[in-house]
Amino acid sequence: MSPQTLTLTIDPAAAAAPFEQVRTQIADQARDGGLPVGYKLPTVRGLAEELGLAANTVAKAYRALETDGVIETRGRNGSFIAAAGEAADKEAAAAAETYVRRAQRLGLDHHAARAAVENALRATYGADD
What we know:
The chain is mainly alpha-helical. It is built from 5 helices and 2 strands, in the order αααββαα. It has helices at residues 18-31, 44-51, 55-67, 84-105, 110-125; strands at 71-73, 79-81. A two-stranded antiparallel ribbon has the order 1-2. Strand 1 (71-73) and strand 2 form a beta hairpin. The two termini are 28 Å apart.
């Protein structure tokens, strides 16, 4: 992938839904610097046409990316890669706080709450090295 070029591949046989493939690939490219902060993304309709997807599928991916702080939409000016690191950190901290409060209400002690997180991390990211 050349710098500052959005490259997406949709695998119709993949387990992940097409919108999730779009979301993941854009997020990964933003995270690794392939798409720099301020990079203007294609329009929803343009990207949908290019990928052979429904516009609603791409719109759903863009909404998820915006919720995650990876992109920002500036009205009619379009959607752009945002400074996601800070937004992602804030979102993760808020999710962690919500989890801890819920675990405490459920009566889990510190060790049980931590074990649940470790199990979820292993299930999602694989075994730690």
